[in-house]
Amino acid sequence: MARALLRRALSLSTAGARATPRVTAASSSTAVAPLRSPFDDRLLRLLRSEISYLAERSPPYPPPTRFKSFAVEDRPGEQWVRLRAGAGGGGAAEEVKVEATMFDGAAELPLDAPLFHRVESLERGPRLHLSLVVEVARGDRVLGFVCSAWPDDLAVRHVLTLSAGGGNNGSRGGRDFHKLEAGQREAVSNFLKEREVDGELAEFLHDYMANKEKMELLRWLKTVESFVDK
Known about the structure:
It is a single chain. Helices cover 41% and strands 27% of the residues. By secondary structure, the protein is an alpha+beta fold.
């Protein structure tokens, strides 16, 4: 009887072994890719749609490297650009440096502006503003100018005298351009125009910065897309 029970137990054990599936070593090492959330998928679709629109319908163009006598130094990823030029300046070695911000404001209409001026402003769009710092250096002598650049005009705001190297410690004082006498204001304007710092430069910088904004936006969108897609 005991032998019969033993044989019965062995037969059941063997049958169970046959029914148990084998697990290969390969299945335990298979990598499982994490699933993106529906939110991530939607965000990726929106990012790629915006990138496609900007790249195909309103693509930025390669930024120019020169404007007249100026060499243009693009600053990818930064909110400003630098231009440099050398000039004779009456026989003395001279360097002109212009640093311009991206758009930092817009003109505002007076509260009492006529209605047709308001309508015209809305149709035309905002009159954007960017700031310029101009330095004209001869040896250790530097004249500085803080300017406003509008789409069709360049306005001087302050005139500074600086030591070589610039910076806050190099400032030796300045004057409000509008408080200068008429003859002095004209002399300053002519001084800058002779060095091609004028309305044409302002127009160039507005076009340049509008294109740079597109490039920076595309760069940022692609960075975010790459982050979300990982």
